[in-house]
Amino acid sequence: MHLFRIVTIVCFLLCLCATVFAQELPQFDFSRLGFVSQWNAAHDISKIESGAEGMVISIGGNDPYTFGPPRDYPANVPLWLTVRMKSDTEGDTQIFYFTDGPREENSVRFTVPQNQWTEKRIAVPPLAKGTRLRLDPPGTKGQATIAFMRFSPRILLQEPAWPRPTTPDVQQGAYTLKSGNLIIKSNALFGQFTLAINGQDMAIGLNCPQIGYTVKNGLHWLDFSQKRHNKWSMETDGTIRIRHSKQDEDGAYWGWTQTFKAGKLQGTIEVHSEVTVSQNREIVFLPMLTILPGVGSFGEKKTQAIFPGLEYLDNEPSSSEADIRGPQSKRQVSDSVKNTLPMMAVQNGENYIGLAWREDEKNPDKFSALFDSPDRLFGSGGHVMGLLFPGSDGENRVEGSLLPYQGETLKAGVPLTLNALIFGGKGDSAVDAVKQFVAWHGLPKIPDAGTFENYNALASAGWLDSKIREGNLFRHAFWPGFEAKTAADAPLLMEWLAQQNSPRAGELKTVAQSALAQVKPQDYNASNVSHVTYPVAALVYGGVEQNAARAAQNARNLLKRFDENNRVLYQKRPDGGDLGTTHFAPDANGLTAQVVESLLENASFSGEQDLIDEGLKKLRALDKFRNTVPRGAQTWEVPLHTPDILASAHLVAAYTRGYELTGEAHFLEMARHWAWTGVPFVYLRNPTDKNVGAYSTIAVLGATQWAAPVWFGQPVQWCGLVYADALYRLAPYDQTGPWKTLADGITAAGIQHTWKQKDKERVGLLPDYYLLRPQMSSGPAINPGTMQTNAVRLFNKPALYDFRVLSQSGLLVHAPGAISEVKESKTGAQFKVMGWTEKPYFVLINGLKSTPQIRINNQAVTLAAPHQFNAEKGRLILNLQGAPTVEISTN
């Protein structure tokens, strides 16, 4: 009782402080000329002037910002910054706070729609005396108007001294429920249950639950751990039902019921948790369901753990600073928009235990997920996974905090319900938990990407009309620092669009021909601006022999990147910090796999067996990373340690190519395994109640340079599209996984993210990142190629490129179109090529040991121009047109 009164007094004092601070904190009221004159047009701003509605900033360049005057702030007081503004351009506004120069980590961002007044309240840390602000409005032209910027104190509720959970005694008189190898035992106390898998104790319930609520006289806590007023039963259908009722000290009656029953899938237990109260209560903490893995068994250690979208762990602590430093590293209770899959799991030894939940589609922020590994919140000696009310929407609590800034109303007589799942089983890594979750939850519906005709128009506008193009040159992205250059993939993809009945076919072909003329033939396969590319330009335009020779040299150069232990070691960049300092090794699977993938692709196109053999050797060395977290594929800006979807993508692609080249089941197994490691980066839920979200993909679980931008909850679809491309390649060989559906979903989401026709400069371009809550594309605008190469498969259109290994004859076939109707023997092969271009094209066939005999459409041909045979390299280049059938005899 004393604790409640102390908290009440503290809250009163804080409110009193708030009144005082509100009078002292700096305010910038830009309706007054004196405030406007204190801000200067520092960079890419043509002028700042006072307008009828506030400070009017006229933007005159790509990187506009203005500085304000220094101001003094009270020490150690967390603050709210409220900004009211409107802008001619939708996008991110960024505000820096500093005394010695602006830094990314000391800034906040918020989005503003186009031409609408927006008032945003943003949490900022305590500021020092003499702090200055820098305001970066969105856009590269037009105007932004700021009405005011006001500071107020940010009051934090204080947590109680949490009672430490204890291992329950459920040996006698307990009800037991079994689902497969998952067993729950429960006794008469609320939250008193144990979970075991395959005979191993895995978790207990939170047996000291408390509900926190506020009324007029302050913050109160209601203890639900007492046996009094508890009822429990075992129903005839095998359901364990526990009911607890209690009256709080302010006169309201509470009822809390939890039921447990075997799920439809083996190894799952369905949980229904329901709370009611007789009077309205402002809830600040209500643990609807909490389990504590490791308590009374394996303790704080683990093999792996996963909290999709936020944590992907080996035996290491969650909420660490290995990938992000500062307050945002605290991820115990995070903005729910950051959860990609509504699940979490801890795996130890050969078993894992998980918690998943069904979401309210109209209110996905209803509950907040709680995850800490090990448990540093309740001191249980294990780990903690749970679901709390109220939810977390990115604004109502300090990131990672158990308590929000203020309560959310639970209305009298209206049940608060949660439907969840406890699941578990045998597994070597967190991948097995993800598989079981997907089996239970299923995959969301593929987003509506519109018709192919609309997509063709969008992609065509991207290549022809957007700022990605500068005459006959193309940028990788429309953003400062990306210069236009020659590119062969741009004309190739434009010609493909032209072939698909595009209304702009004439323009596409004309621009494509002019752009291709800028590229040297030996550079056709290497001159690219897209993230997803194939060695196909030479097969369409010529120079195949030159490009095969260059591929061989590329492979030899890539081999030089490996050390004597077949590792690719991280190298600190001369002009940057050491991004390897928080990683436990000098190499990582994603860093190495991208080199192996490129090595195998170049070796395959060259056809040189010694290079293929070396590539396969490097691939086998990747086996040491099995059952580890995918990491380290984006070390141009992100720490080597950081979990990374690109790592999954490169590993899938490398192992799939290994399987194609050898037919070894082990390589297919490894490709399948790494494909599953990428799933936690994909939104298999709609994180908002808006249209765009499902199948969007998180890039990494961390921040650039450990600081900012922070990438949690920030879809970076180009990374997902590289992963989707790898899944498309894997799907024909593995029918056990959801690979085609996942790839289609990711691709459709990418089309949703793409800038549409109303944005003349960025039409048809893929945003570097997408903002889920405001439903807004932002960041550098990436060329259409990364999107288009995947859209080809989504819409089931003619293949851009195909690669087949004819294992009996030992031939490797590369074609600008699908290879089908394959028949082969040890002495030859027959296949059909569905070329997508209306012009003659080339097919490359490697692996010939002697001069072959060739028939095209049942007609014998001589190996003279326009065909070509390199006997020394065993390389055959055929010049074909349309959809011919090719017969090769090696007798």
Brief write-up:
With 891 residues, the chain is α+β, with helices and mostly antiparallel strands. 22% of the residues lie in helices and 30% in strands. The chain is built from 15 helices and 45 strands.
Task: From the alpha carbons, calculate the radius of gyration and give it in angstroms.
Answer: 30 Å
Describe the global form. Answer: globular
What level of helicity do the residues show?
A: 10-25%
Q: Describe the largest sheet.
A: 10 strands, antiparallel
* Strand element count: 45
Helical/strand content category: alpha+beta
Regarding quaternary structure, how should these chains be classified? single chain
Quote the distance from N terminus to C terminus.
94 Å
- Uncertain segments are 1-23
Tally of individual helices: 15
Strand content: 25-35%
Mean pLDDT: 93
Descriptive account of the structure:
This protein has 891 residues and is of the alpha+beta class. Helices cover 22% and strands 30% of the residues. It contains 15 helices and 45 strands. A hairpin with a 2-residue loop joins strand 16 and strand 17. Helix 5 runs antiparallel to helix 6, helix 11 runs antiparallel to helix 12 and helix 13 runs antiparallel to helix 14. The longest helix has 23 residues.
